[in-house]
Every structure is written in C-alpha cells, then in structure tokens.
Amino acid sequence: MFNGSLPEGISGDSLQWHLEEESALFPKFVKDWEIFGCCGGKDSVHPVRLIVSLEDLYCGTTKKVSLSRNVICSNCTGKGVLKSGACSGCQGSGQPCDECRGTGETLSDKDRCCPGCKGEKVFQEKKIVEVHVEKGMKSGQTITFSQDIVFMVIQRDHRKFRRIDDDLFVKHSLSSTEARCGFQFALTHLDGRKLLIKTNPGDIIKLGSFKARPFMKGKLYIRFTMEFSASLTGEQCKTLEGVLPVSTSDMEFDKCEEVTLLDVSMEEEWRKAQAQCGEDNDRHGKIQCAQQ
C-alpha cells in the first residue's frame, strides 16, 4: 500500500521525502511519481518510484520533480507549543487534576501554539531535484540522489514493444500474399529512427516465426503473424492450387459422413453452456458443473 503519511517513530533528518501531491511548478511530473512504501525503521530510506517510458530507458532522459517532507519543528522541538509551566492545581505532581488533566503542566494562552509550525509539531520542507536516467537502465534499478533520497525506476508498459533483458520484441501482421511473396515495411524505433524491414526474394515467412536484427544494445526480434482472406472466389482458389502444394490424405472420403462447418462466437457458446448448467442445477439440485 502506498501513501504519503508520516511514519511513527521517525524524526529529524530520517524523515522520508515524498512527492508533492499538488505542484504549481512542475504539474506534468506529478503523475509520474508516487511514494514507494511508508513505514520502516528509523534509518531506513524508502525509494520514490519514478515512472518512465521505454523510450526514456532506451534514449536516456532527465526528469524534474518537486518533493516535500515533514521535518520536526526546531522552534518547539516537535512539541507544538513554546513552553509550559508546572500546574498550580496539583503542583506538577501529575495526579488526577481538572486543570492539567493529569499531565502536571499548564500553558498560558500566549504559549499554547508555536508560531513556527502553528502547533503542527512539524513543518514542510520542499526541494526540486533533477533525476538523470541513463541509457539502458532497467525497471527496478535505483538511483541514489543523496543520502536520504533514492529513486526506483519503474517502466510503463509500451503499446508496441516489449523488453526482455537487453532485447526488444515486436509483433507484425502479414497478409498471406506478403508471407509468401515478400514484403517491406517501415518500423519506427524507440529513438524515432525509421527502420526498413524487408525480406529477400524467395523468402517465405512461416506463421508465428521470428526474425532478429542485431544491435549493439541488444537484439530486435519481430514475431510475424498472418492475416487470411475472409473468402476466395473459385478462380482465386484455382490460381492458388496451381502454385501451392496439393494436400494429400490416405483416408477414404467416400466412407465419411459429410458435415457442414458454421461460424460461431465462443463467447456466445460459453454463455449458453453456463445457462444450461444453471438450468440443470435448478432441476437436479445444487450440483456444480464440471469445468471444461
């Protein structure tokens, strides 16, 4: 669980830095930061999560952020009041007393609130820092900014690329014609470069196959999927049969029962099965359906 509350038992310089929830100076950075952890020992330092994109990790980046932390008020040493005197009712003995409620101390009106912290015992210290994310850093790595400020790099999911260690993976869909006759397409890399991806004449891409392009930073793997035409005319089928291998089978088709294939929605089939299962339970008692 993440929150910005002040841990009990932590005081002075050991108080942890956290992101200001509202920052007028750097509002665009606010959403990229959140506190990582909230409790621990007096000397523990909890990393602040720095959310970055895959492009940031590939190219490197510098981010500014406004941080704040609660610091014990030095004016009142964390008491919230300036000074107190012995209770005149119990003479400071601390016995049950209506005037001091057993504390043994009373405050004058002018000393009831510390002007430095306005009675809050702590005040907010603010700091603006620049964090440098080096090229090639990985999600989960930490950046030590100072003795009491540590950042943890967290990568957002990318809509196109997936990173595994130092390698990148991307999917690309081909038509059946492109898979058999060749193709070329432009792929925009993380640094904005346009890569021309193409096959050599005569190369045939198999369904689900991978191709790799080596880089100094790692390899770029492309997984190819294939799109099939919704339907073909009789003439198109004859053309394909003339260039594609003919299917062979040892089965005697004249002894088979001919069936017809229909388009189905698996979601609809699942709903029908669940509905039928419910009807059977109502008729025969609460017997659970077996999972398929």
Instruction: Evaluate the radius of gyration.
Output: 34 Å
Q: Give the mean pLDDT.
A: 70
Biggest sheet, spatial arrangement of strands: 2-3-9-8
Q: Please identify the structural class as seen in this structure.
A: alpha+beta
Pfam families: DnaJ_C
GO molecular function, one term: Hsp70 protein binding
Protein name: Chaperone DnaJ C-terminal domain-containing protein
Keywords: Metal-binding, Repeat, Zinc, Zinc-finger
Question: How is this structure best described in words?
Answer:
By secondary structure, this protein is an alpha+beta fold. The chain contains five helices and 15 strands. Strands 2-3-9-8 form a four-stranded mixed β-sheet. GO terms for molecular function: Hsp70 protein binding; unfolded protein binding; zinc ion binding.
List keywords for this structure.
zinc ion binding; alpha+beta; zinc; disordered N terminus; 292 residues; 15% helix
